[in-house]
Description:
Blueprint: H1 21-27, H2 30-33, E1 58-63, H3 68-82, E2 86-91, H4 107-118, H5 123-126, E3 127-129, H6 141-155, E4 159-162, H7 170-182, E5 187-191, E6 204-208, H8 210-221, H9 234-246, E7 252-260
Parallel strand pairs: 1-2, 1-4, 2-3, 4-5
Antiparallel strand pairs: 5-7, 6-7
Helix pairs in contact: 3-8, 4-8, 6-7
The structure holds zinc ion.
Amino acid sequence: xxxxxxxxxxxxxxxxxxxxxxxxxxxxxxxxxxxxxxxxxxxxxxxxxxxxxxxxxxxxxxxxxxxxxxxxxxxxxxxxxxxxxxxxxxxxxxxxxxxxxxxxxxxxxxxxxxxxxxxxxxxxxxxxxxxxxxxxxxxxxxxxxxxxxxxxxxxxxxxxxxxxxxxxxxxxxxxxxxxxxxxxxxxxxxxxxxxxxxxxxxxxxxxxxxxxxxxxxxxxxxxxxxxxxxxxxxxxxxxxxxxxxxxxxxxxxxxxxxxxxxx
Length: 263
Ligand SMILES: [Zn+2]
């Protein structure tokens, strides 16, 4: 069960100049977007560097199934929403076929709405829920591509997040490959789900405050139907956030692979 009561250690120390440039590009915007002057250190883990997301941006998170977006980048979703960016979460399956016996087949549709609300988003406006059958995405590749092209036209996202190219789940792999086809002129980052990744390159980091991580953990706790899964155990997701934070200078973080970055 996911608890939200554990006390979080504080981030320590400034980000050093050796931190990869992409990190600075992506995360340098925190203070600016929050209306704060550059310099010093923010509770949100802001780093100094070139500002990319100076204005409100549209961030599209592609989730093969309900919960993938929250697991892979729930901290980013909470943080960027709080900063005023427009985060839209498009999910392609509510996995009716894999819902545990005895539960409502639509339980995940309800749970994802609660999770999105906890992240600070409006599920009526910022959650798009498709209904492809779980584990069948490869045979609907073209339909999924066309859905994404419609999303591109409607939302005009500045940044798209999707699973990794090294994700072995057939649905996740389909979403990533079709996203690369559909969003040819957008920045694309891949989020991390270690239980499905053969390998994962930590190109980019989103540093998270204790509050961002707590919000992510609360959102994950909305998935009561998934608590039996190993990766929904509290220590798994907290440990990953600590590990990615340890690659910086402590605190918490989520890591991403870069497919394309538009400067
Ligand atoms: Zn999934």
